[in-house]
Design goal:
Layout: H1 8-11, H2 14-18, H3 24-49, H4 53-59, E1 67-74, H5 93-106, H6 124-136, H7 143-148, H8 155-160, H9 163-168, H10 172-178, E2 180-182, E3 188-190, H11 205-217, E4 221-225, E5 228-232, H12 234-237, H13 251-255, H14 257-279, H15 282-298, H16 300-311, E6 317-323, H17 325-333, H18 335-339, E7 340-343, E8 355-361, E9 371-372, H19 374-379, E10 394-400, E11 406-413, H20 421-434, E12 441-447, E13 450-451, E14 460-461, H21 462-471, E15 474-476, H22 509-512, E16 519-524, E17 528-536, E18 560-567
Parallel strand pairs: 1-6, 11-12, 13-14
Antiparallel strand pairs: 1-18, 2-3, 4-5, 6-8, 7-8, 9-10, 10-11, 12-16, 15-16, 17-18
Helix pairs in contact: 11-14, 15-16
């Protein structure tokens, strides 16, 4: 792009010209250079602010034709419990205080007078109303379970922290099914509880019980069933708990599992409401929750799109993991869709709604996707070996660079323990061989779910993974030997979620949380060298070490990786 010729008097003077290159002429030349740089800077700033900077910088791409810019990000599925993970929320000290107070409440001494009996929280009147509801719909009465067991338990030590209750899934199963219900219309409804996006008033137990009872038993909800749309009341959505799958449950409990889990779910929610209103005040914790819901949940997709649009639009390739179908559709309608081919696997998982996606810069890869080779990757797994991958976890495609070179670009979300990562990398190389694509360049962005201190045989060690990809002729944005302490995640569960065995105290977030080097960009060692790799957990291309995330401004529990690769010149 030409800047236009500057006016002659500004940079050129016959007097200066006559003096030659010495003395004042030297100063004049320096002045000209400085003025030229200033004008260039001002013009670039103008282009940027007017929306034309992208085209300005794109025109210079020819001078960096041997460079490739890649980003990878597990944007993470939306979590409907805003309190589940510790977040960094320095703007409001009330958050930290609330979570510490909840921690202390749950960790109280068993003899503490706040460790009430269950019937002092979920009252006998509530129990009688619930039992009438249960028998009216044709289920067994749970009066005996109440009289002989649950009413006498202590709310913290003998209910919330009872490991057997957890292994029987009597409280967590109904929470999983009814916490957030997706309607056929695309909207969501929430059970009246602390640990979701419910917006009603939970300031007293009486207010909570009125709404909870009506939600569970009164209003039919239209949902997408296996055979199309159907209307079900939430209690009808509950599933029996099988002894074959959960062996700790007793035979009679298995027979009564539907009404029994309803009772346990009600007690669980009542305890949470009581706890919140004990350690805090409704006019403190409820507005705090709504602020978190707004930023962590409702604005998760807009925040994610905004970060990509502001910071990563100059990428040639963006690999994303755990992407919802809604996000894909929204991205295609934004400036991202104008700049990139936004591509997803054919077997898009709309149920689990966690998909791997590839975005190809339309200028760098004008043809977009030539063909998807994901099925070939799955077919390349060793026979008889079960690789823990789910639909949507792998997405691999063939494309062609504007310079005519052929590429395989892939995105992958590993299982929690990372045990699928090595087999998937091996399979994608095998698929390339099987399809006659060994000469193609490979770019592979992934959440590898590797660990600094892996449990042998149960988790994927990061150094072992490095040895594995090097043995296959690959390297990574972190080089041949990744640094185990080069973390890309830092998250820790709070005490305000159903799995208390996974909860971390405030001072243990770093020690017991998920702080690991999980994210990678792989490529063939003979094709590229790394120019630069950056991490980002702020949305500003900056990474703050020892900071738990997500935050109100950064919506994922994985950092973003961006790397610039330089193509090697064939000898």
């Amino acid at each position: 792009m030409a800047y236009g010729r500057p006016a002659r008097p500004s940079f050129y003077s016959p007097t200066n010209r006559a003096t030659g290159l010495n003395g004042s002429a030297s100063g004049s030349i320096r002045t000209k250079v400085i003025l030229l740089l200033v004008v260039t800077s001002m013009y670039t700033t103008f282009l940027y602010r007017s929306g034309g900077a992208s085209s300005f910088f794109t025109t210079s791409r020819g001078s960096r034709a041997n460079l490739l810019s890649i980003a990878t990000w597990n944007i993470a599925a939306i979590n409907n419990n805003p309190f589940e993970y510790w977040i960094t929320y320095k703007e409001n000290p009330a958050y930290e205080q609330l979570m510490v107070d909840i921690e202390r409440f749950i960790e109280m001494d068993p003899s503490d007078d706040k460790n009430l009996k269950v019937d002092q929280v979920f009252t006998n009147d509530m129990m009688q109303a619930l039992d009438k509801r249960l028998t009216k719909v044709g289920w067994a009465s749970v009066q005996n379970y109440w009289d002989n067991d649950f009413s006498k338990r202590r709310i913290i030590t003998e209910f919330l922290k009872d490991p057997l209750l957890g292994s029987k899934r009597l409280a967590s199963m109904p929470d999983r099914i009814t916490n957030t219900i997706n309607l056929a219309s695309g909207e969501q409804v929430f059970r009246p509880t602390v640990i979701n996006m419910y917006e009603g008033d939970l300031g007293t137990l009486d207010k909570w019980w009125k709404e909870w009872e009506a939600f569970m038993f009164d209003k039919p909800l239209e949902i997408e069933g296996k055979s199309g749309k159907e209307k079900l009341i939430p209690y009808q959505m509950l599933q029996p708990i099988s002894k074959a799958k959960y062996p700790d449950i007793e035979e009679q409990e298995e027979k009564d599992s539907l009404p029994l889990q309803t009772l346990c779910g009600a007690i669980f929610d009542a305890i949470l409401v009581h706890m919140m209103n004990t350690v805090s005040k409704p006019n403190v914790w409820q507005p705090l929750k709504q602020t978190m819901v707004e930023n962590l949940n409702k604005k998760k997709v807009p925040h994610t799109l905004e970060i990509l649009e502001k910071q990563y639009m100059d990428s040639d390739i963006i690999a994303l993991q755990e992407v919802s179908q809604s996000f894909i559709e929204q991205a295609r309608r934004t400036v991202i869709g104008k700049r990139f081919h936004v591509l997803a696997p054919a077997d898009l998982d709309s149920t689990r709604d966690q998909n791997s996606v590839v975005c190809l810069n339309k200028q760098t890869f004008p043809v977009g996707m030539m063909q998807e080779i994901t099925p070939s990757v799955a077919a390349a797994f060793p026979q008889g070996v079960k690789v823990p991958v789910a639909p949507g976890d792998i997405f691999a495609l063939e494309t062609k660079h504007a310079d005519g070179s052929s590429y395989i670009v892939a995105s992958f979300h590993g299982d929690t323990n990372g045990l699928a990562t090595k087999p998937v990398v091996e399979a994608i190389l095998q698929a390339m061989k099987n399809n006659g694509m060994n000469d193609h360049k490979l770019i592979f962005g992934m959440d590898a779910n590797t660990y600094e201190h892996a449990t042998p045989g149960k988790q994927q060690d990061v150094l072992e993974f490095g040895e594995s990809y090097v043995s296959l002729g690959l390297t990574s944005c972190w080089g041949d030997k990744p640094q185990p302490s080069n973390y890309t995640t830092y998250n820790a569960r709070t005490f305000l979620q159903p799995q208390l065995n996974k909860a971390c105290r405030q001072e243990e977030k770093r020690e017991k949380g998920d702080v690991n080097p999980k994210d990678f960009i792989l490529f063939k060692k003979n094709d590229f060298t790394v120019v630069e790799t950056l991490k980002d957990n702020t949305g500003k291309k900056q990474y703050i070490e020892d900071m738990a995330f997500p935050t109100l401004n950064f919506p994922s529990d994985h950092g973003i990786l961006s790397t610039t690769l330089e193509q090697k010149v064939a000898e």
